[in-house]
Design goal:
- This protein has 2 helices and no strands.
- With 54 residues, the protein is mostly helical.
- Helix 1 packs antiparallel against helix 2.
Length: 54
C-alpha cells in the first residue's frame, strides 16, 4: 500500500507543478489550467479515499 501512496504523492506533485506552469503561461481561467486543476482534484480525492478506507 505504501507504494501506491508514494506513486500518488509523486503524481500529485507533478500535476500541481504542471497546473502552476499552465496558470503562469495561459492564465488561471484557461481551459488547460482548469483541466489540470480538475485532474489534480481527482488525484487528491483518490488519496483521500485511500486514507479514509485503509
Amino acid at each position: 500500500m505504501k507504494n501506491l501512496y508514494d506513486m500518488l504523492f509523486v503524481q500529485i506533485e507533478r500535476k500541481r507543478e504542471e497546473m502552476i506552469l499552465l496558470g503562469n503561461q495561459n492564465g488561471l481561467l484557461s481551459q488547460e489550467t482548469i483541466n489540470a486543476s480538475q485532474q489534480l482534484d481527482c488525484l487528491l480525492n483518490h488519496l483521500h479515499y485511500l486514507e479514509s478506507h485503509t
